[in-house]
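Data card: per-record layout.
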Amino acid sequence: MSQIKDGFSAVALAEVRAAQARIANEIIRTPLVLSEAASGRAGEKVYLKLENLQRTGTFKVRGALSKVTSLTPGERQRGMVCASSGNHGLGVAYASSRLGVRCVVVLPQNANPHKMSLLRELGAEVLCFGETSDACQQKANEIAQEKGYTLIHPFADPVLIAGQGTVGLEVLEDLPEVEEVYVPIGGGGLISGIAVAIKEQRPKTRIWGVQPQRAGSMWAALRQGKVVSLDEVRTIADGLAASVTWEINLAHVQRYVEDVILVSDQAILDSMMFLLEHGKILAEPSGAASFAGLLANSQRRGQAVAVMSGGNVNLQQIAGLRQMQGA
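The structure for this 327-residue chain is written out next.
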């Protein structure tokens, strides 16, 4: 690791590669596809990194497996607990199921019912608590302390960040000349890992983060130069509804990322429907946000990759989102 800011250490490229070696047999090496539809819409070549086809339907399983495979046998056997809007929980539940250990996932009371159903299918014990990510995390912390379970943080753990960074390794392996990469941001674990994996090998590639307008914790933190806790978060992209990032994620973004682009929920929904109808790609709102950010970026230039971070949405939810947004 190298120092990046105020004593925080950057995840090293070697650590991302080590994570890739540990988890390679448990994940899908997802395709990177040139989308004619997305390219036509953007006016530049656009490739889609299809993490919606990953195990559990989201990139989150990479970080969860990276973390769990780094634990001692004793830490694993105590069981796992995590706070999640759904996708991180799915990753931890999958990793726990592979090891045959107990997993508790704390979700907000308004959690996505489709993701909740998927969690139970994986054998996770689901606990709904509070209405915010902060409340869920506090409850998960309490359970870890009281029960002795191993806590798996959703975005601020260096080993988990290294696992998420394997997405970036695959992007460069498949498209070494990539000029831009667009990454959705909730807490910042995915962009932290991808930025290390790509920038440490190809510094001239531009990395752009994307957040919903009413969930722009990283956007605000960049501008204030410190962690910012939002009083309210409202977005259809439940996987990006983090009210706060952590110092380690902010430090990575400050070092490696061009900027964070804010997009409206309507733009996210429009991108989601465009990708489904014209690109034949099913992305949940959090995944489609990356393409919305690409389209919104007046500084974009050159061939780009938009990371489709997840696809855990069903047709009933899509209809509900369209009705909600008046589409």
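Known properties of this structure: The chain has a mean pLDDT of 94. The first strand starts at residue 2 and ends at 5.

See the next section for split statistics.
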